[in-house]
## 1
Amino acid sequence: MRFEAVIFDCDGVLVDSEVLAIRGERTALEEFGLDYSPQDYVRQFVGLHDGAFFNALRADYRAARGEDAPADFEERVLAGRARERHALTAIDNADKALRAARERFGRIGVASSSRAHFLKSKLERTGLYEFAAPHVYSADLVAAGKPAPDIFLYTAKKLEVDPARCLVIEDSENGVKAGRAAGMTVWGFLGGGHIFDGHGARLEAAGAARTFADFESFIGTLDLAAHAGPICAP
């Protein structure tokens, strides 16, 4: 089997936003008495669409405090996230990875849990939108966010590629599970600032066929995947 398209996650894969969001959100959540270690926070929440993210946080608040979260709960957590946005940068060599994937397979897409307006803004601010467009899709467009497969299946349909011939690049367990549920091959990316020791093993346990530390390694591996062989099998 040969890949015909590469689908990238955005946060923590193309842009180094997860480490910023985690810092800002955890600071805001501490004000509500919710304290998570960075590792637990990554495992539980990274890769979720905001709807599922806030549902999970509200459940944790209810379990910890015995009452519903206040009306301004979401607003204050989002404000914490926003305070860190000024430091956003592209992941090293993300532009080269997007170009290499398009050159080798012809079609690429971005399938993200970010809300649509934030997704485009992040890619534009880091200079990556021109390399990723036009197939840039938010989970706002589908019924269920990751770990459901909806956004990956939607992206494959837009790319006009069989899901089984799509390669997904993901940094979260939720994202890996979503890609595998879509019937795609998933490779785990470990180049974001939020990655901790043991994260690669967790991605593989979730279904990633392999992991790589940075986009230089990814580009080298693409040359192997561009030819038929066992490396392409999901």
## 2
Amino acid sequence: MDIIITILASIIVFALGASVGSFINVVVYRLPAGLSILWPPSRCPHCLNQLKAYDNVPLFGWLWLKGRCRFCKSPISPRYPLVEAIAGLIFLLLFFTFQISLLTFGYWAFCSWLLALSIIDWDTMTLPNPLTISGLVLGIIFQVLWGYVFIGTWQGAINQGIMAISAAVLGIWLFDAIAILGEIVFGKATMGAGDAKVGAMMGAWLGWQYLLLASFIACAVGAIFGILFRRKWGQKMPFGPFLAIGSAITIFTGETVLSTYLRLFFANV
């Protein structure tokens, strides 16, 4: 019986994540174009025909349409089901890690924001304010709620809120400092203002310790990517996806990494 319940719960969680991924596809297409993300309903970008409800079923819609519009037969990018699958897997991994908890619901939202920002940054080299600012505000609200639920007092909620704001400010300062240093060393801008805003969002959600860890991981992954794919020295590269990767790795492994670090280097202090 427990296995059946687990399987059913996993299917529901994956379907929920895939549905969120479907909406993320809408956001990453419409937001940079200055279009409403709510209206009109989903439609083919080529012939502008509104899609049928059953064509919008995550993953399966693309499969039974065979990757082509029902009306004009224009190809539909395989990125759509890929994003839906990634979102579903992220939701599932968070559910298995944190079970049914406030952390699970919070990190579902945080990772959804990060996924949308990553794709937009990869496509356009921009990180839109509506996403970074709303993600920052949502992170502060989450920390306040976390403090009230788990500490049990309004003072705990206020303390968590102050922590989130302080870590958000640290995130802005950290990436602004990196940008200034990079400009001094290379003589040109090396980081956009949007990256600092994502840093603030990361600080609000993760706290200052995990912010530093996630930032380090993001820089390391970005450097490895640049080397492996032979990016030319000074060539622009979107940093948002690497910030998202650093944040995701920190969510799942941050506690283990930090405790191991403290045990190795401060055990005898």
